[in-house]
Amino acid sequence: MKINRKTKSSKEISTSSMPDIIFMLLIFFMVTTVMREFEGLNVTVPRAQTIKKLDSKRNTSYVWATKDGLVSIDDKLVNVEDMNYVMAQKIIARPKLTVSGKFDKDAPMELITDIHEELRESNAIKLSYSALTEITE
């Protein structure tokens, strides 16, 4: 006499615990990941007697220039010749844009003059200079 089995084994993989595993992996990577923020080029800015803070950082674009001739706009290296196009696109996107210039105190004046000319051609006429406050004791 043949006995029939009532239970059949399925050949599928159970996926009921998959969301738990995904969330554990997500939390693990969120906790262990370190986000590094690039702060621009290494620039030693000159000292100033008084400093006025900018109204908002939302409408500010930062231009960095080093003594070696490197120029960065919002943490992206650019050539001085390409500044006109890059800044014109930024001005079109945000008409109230203020350009904050952070120039190394040992940067050649020719480079700073070229940057000013490119900013003027791109109609970025609101310019702010960044400096350190003079510490008097």
List the helices and strands and how they pair.
Layout: H1 18-32, E1 47-48, E2 60-65, E3 71-73, E4 76-78, H2 83-93, E5 98-103, H3 109-121, E6 127-129, E7 132-133
Unreliable runs: none
CATH class placement of the domain at 47-133: Alpha Beta
Helix content: 25-40%
Return Rg in Å: 28 Å
General shape? elongated
Series of secondary-structure elements, N-terminal to C-terminal: HEEEEHEHEE
Largest sheet: 5 strands, mixed
Question: Which band does the percent of strand residues land in?
Answer: 15-25%
Mean pLDDT: 81
Reported by name, the CATH topology of the domain at 47-133 is: Nucleotidyltransferase, domain 5
The number of strands is 7
What structural category do the secondary elements indicate?
Answer: alpha/beta
